[in-house]
Amino acid sequence: SSLRIGLIPADGIGREVIPAARRTLEALGSDLPKLEFHDLLAGFDLFTKTGAALPNETIDIEGGCDAALFGAVSSPSRKVAGYSSPIVALRKELDLYANIRPVVSVEKPSVDLVVVRENTECLYVKQETLTHTDSGREARATRLITERASRRIGTMAFELALARPRKQVTIIHKSNVLSVTDGLFRETVRAVPRLPGVSGRFDSVAIAEQIVDSAVYRLFREPEIYDVMVAPNLYGDILSDAAAALVGSLGLVPSVNAGDSFVMGEPVHGSAPDIEGQGIANPLAAIRSAALMLRHLKYEDAADRIDTAVNHVIREGRVLTPDLGGKSKTDEVVEAVLRRL
Ligand code: NAI
Ligand code: MG
């Protein structure tokens, strides 16, 4: 039977890097079952044309696809009536509760960490209200942290740490100020190794914790102290972009949105309107996201082949896009990866 992959390039450079990931998957040949790609729509451009940012056909992706790759959306920074980010909605609809973001440097100084970001709640429940008071407008947002979501993301973090050489989980929080919400997150993740049914499984995993602001500081000073960093949604979003700076570019950092029954690869970067349409977007984050997706589907050898080829191209340093100091185009980088494959 074939492997059915939904492709959702969405906006901006998503349309440039998702085709690059597709070409890479196609080049794997007999390492994978026969591939079947399904093109699906989403995005702000789509919203401006049709009034819907996330069509039902895309929400129903699990019906026709085994996994998916998402590009990026150009969500505006102002409120647009009727619009809401399709990627935030899709993560929630498909219950892709873990956003797993490995940040690894190919060159020294070595960074080898994974940000495990809770993907369904925190401030991203987007319950915001605006009221008019005597002294001006007042905006409020709800921040939701549940024991259930904290427990499942915590369990995911411990499972990932168990499979890594250093076996360390660092809980990122701000419980010194937000003692109720972040307090619940911290306490719930800390308790994961003592859950009924876990029975010693995580005994070899060390637990550390760090307040989010100093975690960013230490990430820049001594990134080697981190292995698996588990964080509520917003902190995880910010930390992973920060970590991307350590390895040279956002254009290198992949992720997967993972649930219990579906996985969707997605580069960590956004739609990069500043370089859109110039053919110079770095495709490596999207290509690595395809590899990560394959890893979650248990096609380890195929994923290894992609990662080896990507690392070779980076290390060689001859064919790189401008974000990494090179002069090459997106297509030239893809060709270099394919040659290596
Ligand atoms: P961004 O990640 O799109 O870009 C930040 C900077 O990194 C820019 O200078 C960009 O040129 C560069 N960059 C990012 N990816 C690159 C790549 N593959 N190759 C070379 N350079 C790359 O973040 P920004 O500019 O803050 O947001 C732009 C739009 O993207 C916004 O509308 C935002 O809402 C959206 N966005 C969407 C995300 C998603 O779909 N998951 C995530 C983050 C932002
Ligand atoms: Mg982000």
TrEMBL record:
<protein>
    <submittedName>
        <fullName>Mitochondrial NAD-homo-isocitrate dehydrogenase LysB</fullName>
    </submittedName>
</protein>
<dbReference type="GO" id="GO:0009085">
    <property type="term" value="P:lysine biosynthetic process"/>
</dbReference>
<keyword id="KW-0460">Magnesium</keyword>
<dbReference type="GO" id="GO:0006099">
    <property type="term" value="P:tricarboxylic acid cycle"/>
</dbReference>
<dbReference type="GO" id="GO:0006102">
    <property type="term" value="P:isocitrate metabolic process"/>
</dbReference>
<dbReference type="InterPro" id="IPR019818">
    <property type="entry name" value="IsoCit/isopropylmalate_DH_CS"/>
</dbReference>
<dbReference type="GO" id="GO:0004449">
    <property type="term" value="F:isocitrate dehydrogenase (NAD+) activity"/>
</dbReference>
<dbReference type="GO" id="GO:0000287">
    <property type="term" value="F:magnesium ion binding"/>
</dbReference>
<feature type="domain" description="Isopropylmalate dehydrogenase-like">
    <location>
        <begin position="4"/>
        <end position="337"/>
    </location>
</feature>
<dbReference type="Pfam" id="PF00180">
    <property type="entry name" value="Iso_dh"/>
</dbReference>
<dbReference type="GO" id="GO:0047046">
    <property type="term" value="F:homoisocitrate dehydrogenase activity"/>
</dbReference>
<dbReference type="GO" id="GO:0005739">
    <property type="term" value="C:mitochondrion"/>
</dbReference>
<dbReference type="InterPro" id="IPR024084">
    <property type="entry name" value="IsoPropMal-DH-like_dom"/>
</dbReference>
<dbReference type="GO" id="GO:0051287">
    <property type="term" value="F:NAD binding"/>
</dbReference>
<comment type="similarity">
    <text>Belongs to the isocitrate and isopropylmalate dehydrogenases family.</text>
</comment>
